[in-house]
Amino acid sequence: MEDQSIISALVLGLIEGLTEFVPVSSTAHVLLAGHFLGFESPGNTFAVLIQLGAILAILSVYFAKLLGIALSLPTSAESRRFVGAVLLGFLPAAVIGVVAHDFIKTVLFETPMLICVVLILGGFVLLWIDRLPLKPKYHDVTEYPLSLALKIGFCQCLAMIPGTSRSGATIVGALLLGADKRSAAEFSFFLAMPTMLGAFTLDLYKNRNALTVDDTMIIAIGFVAAFVSALFVVRGLLNFISKRGYAPFAWWRIAIGTLGILGLLLVG
């Protein structure tokens, strides 16, 4: 295991944690950074498997709330509806992820120019959303109707295209469907748990024979780095979005997409 690989894994893990829950596409950032760092992973598993570190960050921050929901399931209709809403929102991505897994990993993940273009387009979408005079009618994620959760789940499927952003697709979908900014981001957190756990399990199974001991160690380094950096983001993101909206993330996407295109044209 080379020192350069360890450093690259650490950097990419930090990038994953910092970008997973903001609408800038962590996968795009990890894939583009990996491309320019010369980092290679069998079947592009690294970018998917280290996402579980970010999921553990959510679990640690929301542990008390999740435990309360779990304990109240037998007696609380509200808790059962919330869990049902999250699982229903996860269903479309689960189906499409299984069916299109190989195409996503071997074609879309291997097209950095597409990733850059989608980053820029997504930035303009966020700017448009941030300026719409929306009048939200849903303010609490535990009160989202099942139909709303399913529609947000279909929006999440757009994130199969790297550069779209899973959190960005779900947040934009939720906002257009009547959610306020804070609850839209929070529902995206909860929806990430089954979605990313499912992606982790499927990718690990598909590439179980391709991973070496060194690959496992590199992934573990990225995993820990993603967990630590994601903790800081999850703790402060909701308040930031409530005050500043999504325009800062939009301009970031446009800047990174533009720099990525320039880099690809200059160095390939």
TrEMBL record:
<keyword id="KW-0378">Hydrolase</keyword>
<keyword id="KW-1133">Transmembrane helix</keyword>
<dbReference type="Pfam" id="PF02673">
    <property type="entry name" value="BacA"/>
</dbReference>
<feature type="transmembrane region" description="Helical">
    <location>
        <begin position="187"/>
        <end position="205"/>
    </location>
</feature>
<keyword id="KW-0046">Antibiotic resistance</keyword>
<dbReference type="GO" id="GO:0046677">
    <property type="term" value="P:response to antibiotic"/>
</dbReference>
<keyword id="KW-0961">Cell wall biogenesis/degradation</keyword>
<protein>
    <recommendedName>
        <fullName>Undecaprenyl-diphosphatase</fullName>
        <ecNumber>3.6.1.27</ecNumber>
    </recommendedName>
</protein>
<dbReference type="GO" id="GO:0005886">
    <property type="term" value="C:plasma membrane"/>
</dbReference>
<dbReference type="GO" id="GO:0008360">
    <property type="term" value="P:regulation of cell shape"/>
</dbReference>
<feature type="transmembrane region" description="Helical">
    <location>
        <begin position="107"/>
        <end position="129"/>
    </location>
</feature>
<keyword id="KW-1003">Cell membrane</keyword>
<feature type="transmembrane region" description="Helical">
    <location>
        <begin position="49"/>
        <end position="70"/>
    </location>
</feature>
<keyword id="KW-0573">Peptidoglycan synthesis</keyword>
<dbReference type="GO" id="GO:0071555">
    <property type="term" value="P:cell wall organization"/>
</dbReference>
<feature type="transmembrane region" description="Helical">
    <location>
        <begin position="217"/>
        <end position="238"/>
    </location>
</feature>
<dbReference type="GO" id="GO:0009252">
    <property type="term" value="P:peptidoglycan biosynthetic process"/>
</dbReference>
<keyword id="KW-0133">Cell shape</keyword>
<comment type="similarity">
    <text>Belongs to the UppP family.</text>
</comment>
<feature type="transmembrane region" description="Helical">
    <location>
        <begin position="82"/>
        <end position="101"/>
    </location>
</feature>
<dbReference type="GO" id="GO:0050380">
    <property type="term" value="F:undecaprenyl-diphosphatase activity"/>
</dbReference>
<feature type="transmembrane region" description="Helical">
    <location>
        <begin position="250"/>
        <end position="267"/>
    </location>
</feature>
<keyword id="KW-0812">Transmembrane</keyword>
<dbReference type="InterPro" id="IPR003824">
    <property type="entry name" value="UppP"/>
</dbReference>
<keyword id="KW-0472">Membrane</keyword>
<comment type="function">
    <text>Catalyzes the dephosphorylation of undecaprenyl diphosphate (UPP). Confers resistance to bacitracin.</text>
</comment>
